[in-house]
Amino acid sequence: DRAIQILTNLTANALQYTPEGGRVTISAKQNKDEIHLAVQDTGIGIPPEHLAHIFDRFYRADKSRSRQNGGGSGIGLTIARALVEAHSGRIWVESAGEGMGSRFTFSLPIAK
Fold this sequence. Notes:
Largest sheet: 4 strands, antiparallel
Strand content: 25-35%
Order of helices and strands: HEEHEE
Radius of gyration: 14 Å
């Protein structure tokens, strides 16, 4: 199921960027004819200037997390966005800044 793939991707990122002792929370709620699924963490956060680009292909807010330094390929969030949009959904991110954690939320229409 696509929702599980998207949730797995967002959860893996949250775990990767949340230090030991931090917390990752997954939540779901219905909003009219949509389901909203969110992954929130207490990790490294995202500086405001990076929020608009976080779903861009190969974009890394933390340049030190390159593939050579143990980071991913930089396309996971791009794939998550493509999957969400292919199912008429939306995806967005919120973060108060560095060290303040992040919240990735996506919505999908409820099947009728």
